[in-house]
Amino acid sequence: MCGRYTAGRHQPTSAREALADIVLQNWPVLPARYDISPGTEIPVIRLDRGEGATLTEIKWGLLPHWAKEPQISFNTINAMAETVATRASYRVPFRKCRCLVPADGLYEWQPLARGKQKWWLHRVDDGDFCFAGLWDRWHRGDQVIESCTIIVTDAAESIRHVHTRMPVILDPKDYEFWLDPAINDAPALKDLLKPAPSRLFEAHKVANKPRPHDDDATLIAALTN
């Protein structure tokens, strides 16, 4: 699963370049964030055919449009690639409300004989990338909540020693296809939900217990022993 990640050290360059023909020019500048957690507002890229590709912030933890109460569950921060097209919470967003989640790294915890070791996973070239995500809009009267989930699949072989699962990281050439709400080809969409190429990603150990409220580059610094 993915329960913590980093973003904003680099602006979403891959998305701007891949979506150059449809991107709006007034995307906000993302602040560097080193400990993005569920339940917070996170940046997502969506495609509206009337407005183009937009970058906005919505809640991480998908609240289905049909939910009776506006309570976001930790269980919906990730959607499994294997069941995303059929599970009740995700099947409608999978058809109509797909998004990109800009990132530049993520954390995973490796099980050990005693406790766990925290690792930071990132591109070998330290570039930015985008997770495959889904979003939904819940509303009752004047109350509106937009929220999202990150789709996960098997981990890249190069980091499977840390964890067996990781977010789907899309190839930039597939960004527009993934975002287009007019596309409802479930098999073609599911074909994109594959493990990242091993050559692109690596990982290093980081401190397990940073100081409370830290949100800086010390969180991704490699342990020296």
Briefly say what this structure is:
With 225 residues, this protein is mainly beta. It has helices spanning 13-18, 91-96, 175-179, 186-190, and strands at residues 5-7, 33-36, 41-48, 52-60, 78-80, 98-103, 105-111, 116-123, 129-140, 143-154, 165-167, 201-205.
Commentary on this structure:
The structure is a single chain. The chain is mainly β. It has one domain (5-220): Alpha-Beta Complex (hypothetical protein yedk fold), CATH 3.90.1680.10. It contains four helices and twelve strands. The protein has helices at residues 13-18, 91-96, 175-179, 186-190, and strands spanning 5-7, 33-36, 41-48, 52-60, 78-80, 98-103, 105-111, 116-123, 129-140, 143-154, 165-167, 201-205. A hairpin with a 3-residue loop joins strand 3 (41-48) and strand 4. The longest helix has 6 residues, at 13-18. It starts with a strand and ends in a 20-residue tail after the last strand.
Looking at this protein, list some descriptive labels.
single chain, 225 residues, mainly beta, hypothetical protein yedk fold, 7-stranded mixed β-sheet, globular
